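Troubleshooting entry. The earlier prediction with 1,3-dihydroxyacetonephosphate gave an output that would not parse, so I re-checked the input for stray whitespace and re-submitted. Clean input:
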Amino acid sequence: MRTPIIAGNWKMNKTAAEAVDFVREIRNKLGQIKGVDKVVCPPFIALPGVYDALQATDIGVGAQNMHFAESGAYTGECAPNMLTPYCQYVIIGHSERREYFNETDEGVNQKAKAALAHGLTPIICVGETLAQNEAGETQAFVSGQVRAALDGLTAEQVASLIIAYEPIWAIGTGKSASAAQAGSIIGLSVRGPIADMFGEETAQKVRIQYGGSVKEHNIAEYMAQPDIDGALVGGASLKASFVELVKNAAG
Ligand code: 13P
């Protein structure tokens, strides 16, 4: 009943021109894959061009970050209404933003509220470090991130958003969490707290992705887990073989 969703987080890769060339290259094949929602998340500067190139396809566009304020003296930032002409989605609280740009749980919550208020679907990222994982702190840490991110939202808002569980130690390392491991953490530490906060019915509606070294050869294992509804893909979303990855996700 939950439509799977695969999103490509391009991070700081591809110029605006390269981004448009790339989506032109993959759009027909990607558009033919049914049964799974498809999203690309280019850098800000490439959003208008990518949006134009994907008109008349069913491929969605997302931003990688957003400020929560409507406008103002926030040098280098983009406000929600600057994104809405080009995007349906926005990634919020990626671990790289939390680590390198000091994003906090509180800021993630403010951004989630702002995105929803503007009709953007947040893809809220959570995930533990290697040290936390090895210390057995994963469940407490990840469920705390989920609770903080969703604080003050309505059940209806929560049902509409997406959460990406990305263990930091699995990002860009080629060291992915096993599908069973990821499925179990998502069930216990993401869907569990949502059920506590908003009820089981709402928890069953939320789409939860796994992220961290997802490739075309391992996506099917993640998709086979009942609590995993797709993936947030970094490196493997930058190449034309992303189409194969999405095909393998669709089954
Ligand atoms: P990789 O797929 O490159 O490990 O990146 C995952 C990620 O951070 C997606 O947001």
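This one parsed fine. The domain at 5-250 is CATH 3.20.20.70 (TIM Barrel).
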